[in-house]
Amino acid sequence: MSTTPDLLYSETEDELRSALRGLLADRCDPASVIARTETDEPYDPALWKALGADMGLAGLLVPEELGGQGATHREAAVVLEELGRSVAPVPYLTSAVIATEVLLSGGTKGGAADQGLGEVAAELLTELAAGRRIAVLALPWTTAPGARIAGVRQQGGRLHGRITGVADAVAADTLLIPADGALYAVETGAEGVTVTAQTVLDPTRPTAVVELNGAPARVIADGEQVSELAVRTGLSAGAGLLASEQLGLADWCLTETVSHTRERHQFNRPVGSFQALKHRMAELWLEVVNSRAAARNAADALATAGDERALAVSLAQSYCAPVAVRVAEEALQLHGGIGMTWEHPVHLYLKRAKSDSLALGSAGHHRDVIAGLVNLAAP
Q: Which residues contact 26 (CB under 8 A, 6 or more apart)?
């Protein structure tokens, strides 16, 4: 018998949010993010160290016996909300969520879940939890959970192939690569591995082309069924918690827009007092509130491994992705002339929202998944 999930934030989650928001206010203010995107190093190693190692957030989902926090997806969702509010240039979703979930699900001895984690997976998870390593699942950022995966082949223990659009690959130390019915770990600094940054819309989460020419690899999981399950689990967790990032992004855009329209005056009145703008912002507020419910439901379903986890994830993505884009677009418009300038950070939020709307399956894809799950597929 299913129970109604508690979507309210716990005291622990509120404390985590407060501590993280304070850190980001000091180290990831909009001006700093804009300045970093104009350099050749979009990532902030010092911020990642503060988050991953000092605060221990890189190991939230890693079991305590491997040096992690042993927390749940609900706490990780709070982290992603705050990172979304700051469009923080750190590989948290790709490494601390997706790659970690892949290793936890697929890094088993001999492919048997009841035998515990294998040596390679345990070693990588320990390094990830300590913030000493960044791992990325080497698939295009648009790959949806359950999508067919191809492009890399294994020959004599070495990998060959080319993968485009891999998010955060330029920051990664280790690539997790599915190939020929198995899952492998490849070091980015190894011979035969080339990672080339791409020109992208969202400079705070760049993608790259990964080329493998006889790259040495270690086996994480052997067996097509196990490796496919691991990849699907990682992508599903990523899609579900991406909704929390989109929620944080939309919430920041709405908050800043309301603040701006209170301060901006025309005809001796705040522009936010005009009825047309009031209606637009009220509609955005309702959409953000609904996004919060959808994102929290997905995080809770992932945390409790509920029966309707796939439905909750697709529901969250199908709703939160277009809402984040719409709120960011309205934020840019309602900021008027200043919103169009490069100096104002709203353009970063719109770019992240647009990029996220294609990540880990589009809203249309997730609507199709929902239709199939509830037996309402289109004729």
A: none
User: Residue 337 and residue 373: Cα distance in Å, rounded?
Assistant: 45
What would the two tokens of residue 169 be?
A: 């690959």
pLDDT at 114 over 50: no
What pLDDT digit, counting tens, does each position of 336-373 carry?
A: 877 777 778 899 999 999 999 999 999 999 999 999 98
DSSP string covering 311-349: HHHHHHHHHHHHHHHHHHHHHHHHTGGGGGSSSSTHHHH
- The answer to whether the beta carbons of residues 154 and 184 sit under 8 Å apart is yes
Q: Which residue is listed with tokens 């407060």?
A: 18
Using CA atoms, how far residue 115 sits from 64, 110, 312, in Å, is 18, 8, 30
Neighbour-count burial for 197-211, b at 16+ CB within 10 Å, e otherwise = eeebebbbbbbbebb
Q: What share of the chain is helix, strand, coil (3-state, %, to 5)?
A: 55, 15, 30
Helices 73-86 and 275-304 cross at an angle (nearest 10°) of 150
Q: How many angstroms separate the CA atoms of 300 and 36, rounded?
A: 34
268: left (phi over 0), alpha (psi -120 to 50) or beta: left
What is the spatial distance between Cα 153 and Cα 140, in angstroms, rounded to a whole number?
16
Check the CA dihedral 195-198-203-206 and report its sign: negative
Question: For residue 113, is pLDDT > 50?
Answer: no
Q: What 3 state SS string does 110-155 have?
A: HHCHHHCECHHHHHHHHHHHCCCCCEEECCCCCCCCCCCCCCEEEE
Q: Which of 311, 133, 321 is nearest to 236 (CA)?
A: 311
Q: Is 163 helix (H, G, I), strand (E, B) or coil?
A: strand
Overall residue count recorded for the chain in this entry: 379
pLDDT surpasses 80 at 5: no
With beta carbons less than 8 A apart as the criterion, state whether 38 and 32 touch. Answer: no
Q: How far apart are CA 268 and CA 228, in angstroms?
A: 62
Question: Quick one: DSSP state of residue 332?
Answer: H
Q: Rounded CA gap, 304 and 306, in Å?
A: 5
Cβ(235)–Cβ(149) below 8 Å: no
